[in-house]
């Protein structure tokens, strides 16, 4: 009897989830709010920052979702009360990705390796022709 009760509670439980769980500064994350078994509409979502300050970020739409962006790096907790149950969802905000720096360094290195390999191949071809 206890196993069936736990299984029923897990299937029918309220949920607050964030995707992705780690997001760069300034990029949106999607908060999903689920009630008993369907999206919860009109749920107020509160953000608690690394300093403990709380502020409301919005209300879930007709699909039980809300898009949120963060301006500062840190670990945040999103809170909501879904059908009388307090739910929490953690999210980590990381520094902005800077892939262009890697690209700027990789292009000259790639060209240098291409030149070196072509030079070696032409040297081997000359040796094979003369030898």
Properties at a glance:
131 residues; alpha+beta; Immunoglobulin-like; 2 domains; five-stranded mixed sheet; three-stranded antiparallel sheet; 8 strands; 32% helix; 37% strand; disordered N terminus
CATH class of the largest domain, anyone?
Answer: Mainly Beta
H and E string = HEEEEEEEEH
Report the C-alpha radius of gyration, rounded.
26 Å
Structural domain tally: 2
Largest sheet: 5 strands, mixed
Strand order of the largest sheet: 2-8-7-4-5
Overall shape: elongated
Work out the strand percent: 35-45%
Distance between the terminal alpha carbons, to the nearest Å? 87 Å
The CATH topology of the largest domain is given as Immunoglobulin-like
Plain-language structure description:
The protein has 131 residues and is α+β, with helices and mostly antiparallel strands. The chain has two domains: 2-94, Immunoglobulin-like; 98-131. It is built from two helices and eight strands. A five-stranded mixed beta sheet has the order 2-8-7-4-5, with no helix packed on it. The chain has a three-stranded antiparallel beta sheet with strand order 1-3-6, with no helix packed on it. It starts with a helix and ends with a helix.
């Amino acid at each position: 009897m206890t196993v069936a009760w736990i299984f029923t509670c897990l299937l029918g439980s309220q949920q607050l989830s964030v995707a992705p769980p780690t997001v760069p500064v300034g990029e949106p994350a999607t908060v999903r709010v689920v009630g008993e078994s369907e999206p919860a509409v009109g749920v107020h979502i509160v953000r608690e920052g690394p300093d403990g300050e709380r502020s409301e970020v919005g209300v879930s739409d007709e699909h039980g979702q809300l898009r949120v962006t963060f301006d500062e790096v840190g670990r945040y907790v999103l809170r909501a009360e879904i059908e009388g149950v307090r739910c929490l969802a953690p999210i980590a905000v990381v520094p902005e990705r800077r892939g262009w720096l890697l690209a700027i360094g990789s292009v000259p290195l790639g060209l240098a390796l291409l030149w070196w390999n072509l030079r070696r191949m032409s040297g081997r071809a000359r040796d094979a022709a003369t030898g």
